[in-house]
Amino acid sequence: MKQFKLLGVAMLVSGMLSAGMAQAADVDAVIQQRKGVMGIIGANMGFMGCTLKGACDAGPKVTLKQAQSLAFAASISLATFAENVKGASVKTTASPKIWDDWASYKKGMQIMEERALDLVDAVKSGDKGSMGAAMKGLGETCKGCHDNYREK
Ligand code: HEC
Fold this sequence. Notes:
Blueprint: H1 2-53, H2 60-80, H3 97-100, H4 102-125, H5 128-149
Bound molecules: heme C.
Keywords: Electron transport, Heme, Iron, Metal-binding, Signal, Transport
Binding site for heme c: 142, 145-146
GO molecular function, one term: iron ion binding
């Protein structure tokens, strides 16, 4: 009988522990997802820059896919910030100001998305001048938001 009781307590405790762990893991997953989506944007931006300089050339089809991938990631980025999660063990540089100024943060994301779509159009045109101008416009949105909404 005593053994059963102990087993019951052990099961209860391990149940509580795993519930606690699941919660911590979810908070970490939210941060990791945000960083993952930003990482896709960053990787594609780097590739586009390299292509413009002429240091990389994967051909027009792949270059277009890179621009589309960037635009796609830009379109889902805001959703990854919807929840202001706290207590994550994964390091984050996201400033709490994001959730105080949500409307302005959202606007920043929308502008990035629009400019990423301009880049897609510029890549489709095949004109390097338009691509350069679109990259410049898009790049300004990264810096503008990072300066305001990222902490060191
Ligand atoms: C409206 C806001 C906003 C815009 C626009 C934005 N970012 Fe970010 N970005 C963030 C925030 C906030 C973080 C910090 C995320 C974290 O640490 O949890 C971040 C982080 C990153 C990271 C680091 C990811 C990591 O693994 O830690 C990269 C790379 C990045 N952004 C690239 C870009 C590029 C390139 C652009 C422009 C094409 C861009 N971002 C536009 C808000 C923005």
